[in-house]
Amino acid sequence: MQAYYAVPCPPRGEIETSLAGRPAGTEILVAEESGALAGFAAFSAIYPGPGLAGGLFLKELFVGARYRGGGHGRALVRAVAAQAVARGLKRVDWTADAGQPALLAFYEGLGAAPKPDKMFFRLDGEALSRLGGQG
């Protein structure tokens, strides 16, 4: 995933420490093929939503390049959806790169509907520090 996003990959120990200390409520499902990690889905609960209904937010869905097209992405999203249904939650939300038509088609093929009335925002860096009282 780090190579895909063109960012350096931290050392294995740092990754393991980060995973062990991830925020409460964060869950990760993995897809394997022949004992190798093919992909993963990271998600957490969100509440409230419309009608005070809870849901899940799929923060990251990633399948390694050599495993794409093998059904791993679909299986991971299906597993997240199954978690939502089992918990009595009413939706699964996520963001997607608008410049990736194949990805958007994949999501729509799952039955997901784009929400063009919504816009994605991010608060990070200096703006986060300033607003959070650190800058």
Question: Please, could you describe this protein's structure?
Answer:
- It is an enzyme of class 2 (transferase).
- It comes from Methylobacterium ajmalii.
- Its EC number is 2.3.1.-.
- The chain has 135 residues and is of the alpha+beta class.
- 30% of the residues lie in helices and 22% in strands.
- A four-stranded mixed beta sheet has the order 1-2-3-4, with helices on one face.
- A hairpin with an 8-residue loop joins strand 2 and strand 3 (55-63).
- It is globular, with a radius of gyration of 16 Å.
- The two termini are 31 Å apart.
Gist?
This protein is of the alpha+beta class and 135 residues long. It has helices spanning 12-20, 72-86, 101-109, 125-131, and strands at 26-33, 36-46, 55-63, 92-93. The chain starts with 11 loop residues before the first helix and ends with a helix.
